[in-house]
Design brief:
Hydantoin permease; transmembrane helix; membrane; mainly alpha; AA_transpt_TM; disordered N terminus
């Protein structure tokens, strides 16, 4: 067998003869502990002992990936609707649902053609060689650690609401990080199913309590300077920074697309993952739209993010009690995406990948990522704006642009007998649609960076930022 199969080099991933190489790797396994990289790394060879990772059905997969999507960020949608207007917010939400589902579907098609692919970084290597691998791999790690840090921050704010800030919030940040790392014990996505059920139940409950509280409370609680509550179909007075921030938040809400290629290797039938994403996108579309619309209509220009802070103190505590569960669990799923990339990249050539011994490696990776996340959350005073920067650089591409790039790769004519962008009217439509997605990402990235930089400047000017490792939540 060619040594190239073990070297993780671009030459091993070209389309010509790729299927034959995979078949050869499966039929002629080497002795010892090496696994052929070109083949499916999670597929146990005959007589090989190890844990079966291919245990995900489409419903379980949809449940877990929805858990990552539906988190505390759901209660930031009223603020998005204020920035874009009611109709504008609904259009943006629906538009990105369609885009996210398209990107997910082409990722599934990509996996079916290149069965060795374990994550988005592997897809980058197929298309662009080692540079593509490391660019997307580093982006996955950066975003996952950023999400871990954001959940540490959100968690400590939630707990500080319970004790009224009587205790140093750093203690609660440590608690959130340690609990999250401990609950990340399972290496397999299917191991998070029961946690996902609990998380989704809790966040939906928190959203219902918040909507009921905002809709039924005395509007005088929100009104300032006798200016009545107003809502608009489109916000014509919105500043560019606010509009860009709202659009990026909508994109960020569908950032679970980054995990698609990480879930597929553990699917019993990868092609059914399209159903998983359809389930996830329908739930997300309905919940984001309802929460955003109801809270915006009843609070108008006085909406806050997260929306639960608009309710009475008692309802806020009750809502945060439910939301805290989701803050922890959705953070686990988000962090595990980057951790799984690190894990499979380190062990894909080793029998440790599916053995019990690999559990130690997994826990070490999880511990490292949550430790870095905790430090970043406490060290950087403008972390919210830093997360916007990460989102502009990563989510805008994983959710939007990468779908277009993958489609163009799948249907290019070179070396592909079924290739050709203009063979049918449908192909022609998706060619222009893919190009449009790439252009949208090219626009969102610099605009998002601009919005984040302006936010940092404004925060310092207004004295909003605490010093590093501050006890204030």
């Amino acid at each position: 067998m060619s040594a190239a199969l073990y070297n993780h080099e671009p030459e091993a991933y070209n389309e010509k003869g790729q299927m034959e190489k995979e078949q050869s790797a499966r039929e002629n396994p080497e002795d010892g502990h090496l696994r052929p990289v070109i083949a499916d790394a999670f597929a146990l060879r005959e007589g090989e002992e190890g844990e079966d990772f291919k245990t995900l059905g489409w419903f379980k997969a949809g449940l877990v990936i929805t858990c990552e999507a539906i988190a505390l960020g759901t209660l930031s949608f009223p603020k998005n609707f204020y920035a874009l207007g009611l109709v504008g917010g609904l259009i943006a939400n629906a538009g990105f649902v369609v885009i996210a589902f398209f990107t997910s579907c082409v990722m599934v098609d990509f996996k079916l053609r290149y069965t060795h692919v374990l994550n988005a970084a592997d897809a980058g290597q197929v298309m662009f060689g080692r540079i593509g691998f490391w660019v997307l791999g580093i982006a996955m790690i950066a975003k996952s650690i950023g999400l871990a840090a954001s959940h540490v921050l959100a968690g400590k704010i939630a707990i500080s609401t319970f004790d009224g800030g009587a205790n140093c919030s750093i203690i609660w940040a440590v608690v959130i990080a340690v609990v999250s790392a401990g609950l990340s014990y399972h290496r397999k996505w299917s191991g998070l199913t029961w946690l996902s059920w609990i998380s989704l139940t809790c966040i939906v409950t928190a959203c219902i309590i918040t909507m009921a509280g905002v809709a039924t409370q005395n509007p005088e609680r929100l009104i300032k300077n006798n200016v009545p509550i107003e809502w608009h179909a489109f916000n014509r007075d919105a500043k560019l920074v606010d509009s860009v921030g709202a659009v990026l938040n909508s994109v960020f809400a569908y950032g679970q697309v980054m995990a698609v290629l990480t879930f597929l290797p553990e699917m019993r039938r990868p092609e059914t993952f399209k159903r998983s994403m359809l389930l996830s996108q329908i739930i997300s579309l309905v919940l984001y739209s309802v929460v955003g619309s109801v809270c915006y209509v009843y609070a108008g220009q006085y909406v806050t993010s997260p929306a639960l802070t608009m309710t009475t103190h008692t309802l806020r505590i009750v809502s945060y009690a439910f939301a805290l569960v989701t803050i922890v669990v959705s953070g686990i799923v988000a962090c595990n995406v980057g951790a799984k990339f690190w894990y499979t990249t380190s062990l894909r050539n080793s029998a440790l990948l599916t053995s019990k011994g690999g559990q130690i490696v997994w826990l070490a990776i999880i511990g490292a990522m949550w430790t870095v996340g905790f430090v970043l959350a406490e060290l950087i005073p403008f972390f919210g704006d830093l997360l916007t920067i990460v989102s502009a650089l990563t989510s805008s591409w994983f959710v939007v642009g990468l779908g277009g790039i993958i489609w163009l790769h799948l249907y290019k004519k070179t070396g592909n007998p079924d290739g050709g962008y203009f063979k049918t009217p449908t192909r022609t439509f998706f060619f222009f649609f893919s190009v449009l997605l790439i252009l949208i990402s090219c626009a969102l990235t610099p605009l998002g960076l601009y919005a984040a930089i302006e936010g940092i400047k404004s925060g310092y000017a207004k004295g909003k930022f605490h010093h590093p490792f501050s006890c204030a939540a």
